[in-house]
Specification:
458 residues; Rossmann fold; four-stranded antiparallel sheet; eight-stranded mixed sheet; single chain; alpha/beta; 20 strands; 14 helices; 22% strand
């Protein structure tokens, strides 16, 4: 098994001269970059001058960062321009995101040319985990606009001497499958449910013509059942990528061990904290992922609350790197719906129950309150002709989910299942899949209510 290519890349960035990268070298670099970043934002950003006014002016060690307040999505929506550390003329790319917070205001993220170069370089190195020079790589992500994720990925692949093929999100399954075969694609990058629909398309001729060796899935959480389905259908290796626009699109990627994400630790300082108290949790325990940018100059982010839930895997990775491994993210704080007094349900729970069925293409759910009971509506999209025979099996699988079974036994939940056997439907948005909870704040756990109130848990 090869060591992750991020190891040598980060060793070069942090100036490590030894044979193997060490944690002490990484942490020394991170501490110096944190000091520089805090000095930069205090000098250049009106927002951070106020936000960090009570924080220590000098960090003696990495743990001291905990004395700096969190930055939240609501902060970006309200104060985005005041976070800038450069003039507007130096901004190369502005990305507008719909906010899932309480204000409803859009978030705008600002990137300089140099900031985007950092992402391109990460894509160049990270993709070398699964792509060799000369490989043909189909990009099933937005790539029309300069600076979009697909555009930056293509540039990174070109620098790796691979051949990127810009396609965009999957709209027509037959057309994309034909392209995969005709172009002799070696690897693809795409969204989990879209790539699953390709693999479950009943086209034996196109499947036999494929020579796909690997797939990298991104932009949404990867249910294990989808990874298994792709490997069984195509005989390829499936890798998971972690990132978000706020991170500069790239955050971490799996190595050949495919256990957790190795993070770009020369560019990001990542913490896992208790979402209710804000305190860092012991290594190996679950909490909310929080990150600080170390090398970004346009719009640095200090202790940004992602809302993602994960943990650092305590054991060293089998690939041999000193880089930490973040367990694959399966759910978000805002994606956990409370059922009664002590039960919670997430999109991951539904995915684990339903995606193992070979006919299933997508799973969507909405939770509402009707009378004195919660009402869960689940829409399952399947391959054409799945028929009514599948419906009772899906219903039984849903009732096997512990939270749903317990809610049913308590008499606090009704379940409605709709099966749409019309086949694949092109995506209407790039939003991550999550249970749509229309019940309001009463459907949130205590930690989620804390996160939803901007600044209340800082």
């Amino acid at each position: 098994m090869r060591i992750t290519p991020l190891d040598a890349w980060i060793a070069g960035k942090v100036g490590h001269q030894g044979e193997l990268l060490t944690r002490s070298a990484i942490q020394a670099w991170q501490l110096n970059r944190l000091r520089e970043t805090l000095a930069l934002v205090r000098e250049k950003s009106a927002f951070y001058r106020e936000h960090l006014s009570a924080a220590p002016t000098e960090l003696g060690r990495l743990d001291d960062l905990a004395q700096c307040g969190f930055t939240t999505p609501e902060d970006i929506a309200r104060e985005g321009q005041r976070m800038l550390c450069v003039s507007q003329g130096e901004i190369e790319r502005v990305v507008t995101l719909d906010s899932s917070g309480t204000t409803g205001a859009a978030k705008r993220l600002y990137f300089t040319r140099e900031d985007q170069e950092l992402t391109i370089d990460f894509f160049r190195v990270g993709m070398s985990t699964l792509v060799e020079p000369g490989d043909r790589v189909l990009i099933l992500l937005p790539c029309e606009r300069p600076g979009s994720v697909g555009d930056l990925l293509a540039k990174g692949l070109e620098r790796q001497r691979a051949c990127p093929l810009k396609h965009g999100p999957v709209r027509d399954l037959a057309e994309t499958l034909q392209l995969l075969a005709q172009e002799k694609v070696d690897a693809l990058v795409g969204v989990p449910v879209q790539v699953l629909a390709l693999a479950r398309q009943r086209n034996d001729q196109a499947r036999r013509a494929l020579r796909l060796q690997s797939a990298l899935l991104s932009t949404d959480y990867l249910p294990p059942a989808i990874a298994v389905a792709l490997e069984e259908a195509w005989g390829c290796r499936v890798f998971d990528h972690y990132g978000m626009t706020e991170m500069g699109l790239g955050g971490g990627v799996q190595c050949e061990a495919r256990r957790g994400y190795h993070l770009r630790e020369a560019d990001l300082y990542v913490e896992v904290v208790d979402p209710a108290t804000g305190r860092e949790v012991p290594e190996g325990e679950y909490g909310e992922v929080v990150f600080t940018t170390l090398t970004r100059r346009g719009m640095p982010l200090i202790r940004y609350r992602t809302g993602d839930l994960s943990r650092f895997i305590p054991e060293r990775c089998a690939c041999g790197t000193a880089l930490r491994s973040l367990e694959p993210v399966r759910q978000r704080l805002s994606g956990r719906a409370a059922l009664g007094a002590s039960l919670t349900l997430s999109q991951a729970d539904l995915d684990d129950a339903l995606f193992p069925f070979a006919e299933v293409l997508d799973v969507r759910a909405e939770l509402s309150h009707q009378g004195d009971r919660d009402h869960l509506s689940v829409l399952v999209r399947t391959v054409p002709g799945a028929g009514n025979a599948l419906r009772p099996r899906l219903k039984a699988a849903l009732w096997s989910v512990p939270a749903l079974a317990e809610a049913q036994s308590r008499g606090v939940l009704d379940l409605a299942l709709q099966v749409d056997a019309s086949g694949y439907a092109p995506p209407l948005s790039a939003a991550k899949r999550a249970i749509k909870d229309t019940r309001g704040p009463t459907g949130m756990s205590k930690s989620e209510q804390c996160l939803s109130r901007a600044g209340s848990c800082r």
